[in-house]
Design brief:
Blueprint: E1 5-11, H1 14-28, E2 33-39, H2 50-55, E3 63-64, H3 72-90, E4 94-98, H4 102-113, E5 118-121, H5 133-144, E6 147-150, H6 153-161, E7 168-170, H7 174-189, H8 192-195, E8 203-207, H9 216-230, E9 235-239, H10 242-250, E10 259-262, H11 267-276, E11 279-282, H12 285-293, E12 298-300, H13 308-312, E13 316-318, H14 326-335, H15 337-341, H16 345-352, H17 357-369
Parallel strand pairs: 1-2, 1-4, 2-3, 4-5, 5-6, 6-7, 8-9, 8-11, 9-10, 11-12, 12-13
Bound molecules: uridine-diphosphate-N-acetylglucosamine (UD1).
Amino acid sequence: MPKRIKLVSIVGARPQFVKLAPIARAIDAMADVEHCIVHTGQHYDDRLSASFFEQLEIPRPNANLEVGSGSHAEQTAKMMTLLERYLEETGPSGILVYGDTNSTLAATLTAAKSHIPTAHIEAGLRSFDRAMPEEVNRIVADHCSDRLYAPTPQAMENLKTENLAERAVLSGDVMLDAILSNVKLAQQKSTALDELGLADADFALATVHRASNTTKDAIVPILKALESAAELVSSLVFPVHPRTRVLLTEIDFKPSPMIRLVEPLSYLDSIRLIQSAKIVITDSGGVQKEAAFLNTPCLTVRDETEWTETVSLGVNRLVGSRAEHLAELAEQAMANTEMFDKATKQGIAEHYGSGEAASLIVTDFAEWLA
Ligand code: UD1
């Protein structure tokens, strides 16, 4: 018998695969909902894409648009052209878009113009910095979507301020769903600690890839600060995003022996290292939250964050992009772990829910469509 509702998830970049995993599982459990997955091809390296589908057991995409890299306009326009055709041919009842990437923007705009109901997962996040490409993507996605799933009470507040409360639902955070269902698996399966010789070591984990931090001027002081922070521990592991890799080659960065440049990590290795690190230093939105969920102190190399709860809980501190004080703050954070222990499970639950966001979202969206 044909299923009553047909949903299409549109994803393209690494953090979206993590958010898609619990949603795909929740839809799979619904008898009358069919689910198709479209990969835009924004992230095409296996380490940023295929490995996530495999480890998170996400069904193979029904279509891959293979758009690859390009300027923001080129990438977005290519996705929109191909998505328009795909949506016309497949005629879904509704689409699901995730987070704040160019794939989110392209999918939301295309669906809005094709009059296809859209649900935005991770709605209402704001950094209030419109120079960030992600901020523009978030605002457009929220204003053009029909159903907005806010991961936190703060995100609900932001939507209210923009007169979007009527379409908004407080769902909890699907990234918490993903962590809760994978943290044990990561402990059992990830071999990253042994491979890096860090099983009994105090180490720091760093990631840097935001557009504003990956210019020649911005990256040099950050790298200098990471060098100083590395001296506080036995080693600093730095998985390098492709965007950052190009820049490090251009400036001919020669790290000290304390800094371990490695390829992007798989999801299970990433959560294993975040959980075991003495400190995480990052400009990634997802990694900030994962550090908070796993109770590892985090320093964020940005002037602002959309995940303000991690800061109020005490597990995250904004270092600013100039980063001169990074080593000093890292030392304080590692010396004061009680401060981080205060970020209890209760605090996480109050802000991010109980790890059942995905089933709430798909049930609500299917009912709303019906
Ligand atoms: C994108 C998202 C960002 C998210 C990040 C996670 C936007 C605007 N930004 O940033 O919100 O946090 O993904 O990684 O959508 N590249 C490769 N191989 C790949 C993918 C990219 O080499 O598989 C290179 C390309 O040269 C590209 C550059 O990395 O120009 C940047 O990729 P892009 O898709 O523009 O954005 P991200 O920096 O990955």
